[in-house]
Design goal:
Blueprint lengths: L1 H22 L9 H17 L6 E6 L4 E6 L7 H15 L4 H8 L19 E6 L2 E9 L4 H21 L12 H10 L1 E4 L7 E8 L5 E4 L3 E8 L2 E5 L2 E2 L3 E4 L2 E4 L2 E2 L2 E5 L4 E4 L5 E6 L3 E8 L1
């Protein structure tokens, strides 16, 4: 009897240990060599279909380590190092390298001081995302233009993601917010879904009781849907006394010029990234959804 009790106690202890260990670990997706080769194959296929004159495609893992590289005929020699740098930057910072090129163009030149091996702020690097996890990055250099570099990189990343979803190993989770959660978010104005896990979009349940300031999002396009209230909304023109308050975010006290519209319930307005916009006057309460797309 005593031996049975001891065995039971040991079994329970082992079960508790397994449960505790499981609670402290998470499943992690990983990019395989076969997957890296599929990324390169998809980029090359896109290049051939679009008559790209050359290019070097590099794929790195989630730590920025090179996994595979291929140099198309006619590409300059330095393209290899540049493409690796782009892929590494995209994966380590979890966003396309074009974002950093745009930031520097907009005046934040201090970013160029980051080490070259860590940071290559040139268009053409894209993270590879599966199940909301960044599993690697692809960088392209030496195509006809910076835009085409990025197109080849996106083609490679998208092809891998599509293949994973077809095999049942990918696909983002469905996000559900019940009515109580949504109403609570509108009461204070809150983010329902942020840009974590590599998402290129966000959903805000926004609320205003008074006018705002002029806003410029250098990367995000705002899609606004009015649920309740009215507002005078100004777009375009020039922000007054603009200041950078955060990465990719500029604010001003008002807007000079621009186009004014009266927004009412049911209206939808799309404000592309880089366009100044301002809630000049609002009724209270003014509730609206904002989908931010990057």
């Amino acid at each position: 009897m005593k031996s049975i009790i001891k065995l039971t106690a040991v079994a329970l202890a082992l079960f508790a240990f397994v449960i505790n260990a499981t609670a402290q670990t998470t499943d992690k997706k990983a990019l395989t060599l076969e997957g890296a080769k599929k990324v390169i194959a998809a980029s090359i296929s896109y290049a051939k279909k679009n008559n790209a004159p050359g290019g070097v495609i590099a794929v790195v893992d989630d730590g920025g380590n090179l996994m595979a590289l291929e140099r198309l005929d006619g590409t300059f020699a330095a393209g290899a190092n540049i493409s690796i740098g782009k892929a590494r930057t995209a994966v380590l910072f979890k966003r396309p390298t074009k974002a950093f090129e745009d930031i520097i163009k907009n005046g934040r030149t201090a970013m160029v001081a980051l080490p070259d091996g860590l940071f290559t702020p040139l268009q053409g690097g894209v993270p590879i995302v599966i199940d909301g996890q960044v599993v690697g990055g692809v960088g392209v250099s030496g195509a006809a233009s910076a835009q085409q570099d990025e197109e080849l990189a996106i083609a490679g990343a998208n092809a891998f993601t599509a293949a994973a979803m077809t095999n049942g190993t990918g696909g983002a989770p469905v996000n559900y917010f019940n009515s109580q959660m949504v109403m609570a978010a509108f009461t204070k104005g809150a983010v329902l879904l942020d840009d974590a896990d590599g998402r290129n979009y966000m959903v805000h349940a926004s609320h205003r009781d008074k006018p705002g300031v002029a806003e410029i999002h250098t990367l995000d396009t705002d899609i606004v849907y009015v649920l309740e209230g009215t507002a005078t909304f100004v777009t375009g023109g020039t922000a007054v006394d603009p200041k950078t308050i955060a990465l990719n975010e500029i604010r001003g006290s008002a807007i000079e010029g621009g186009e004014s519209r009266k927004l009412v319930k049911g209206d939808v307005i799309v404000v592309p990234h880089g366009v100044p916009h301002w809630f000049k006057e609002v009724s209270s309460p003014f509730n609206y959804y904002v989908v931010k797309v990057r």
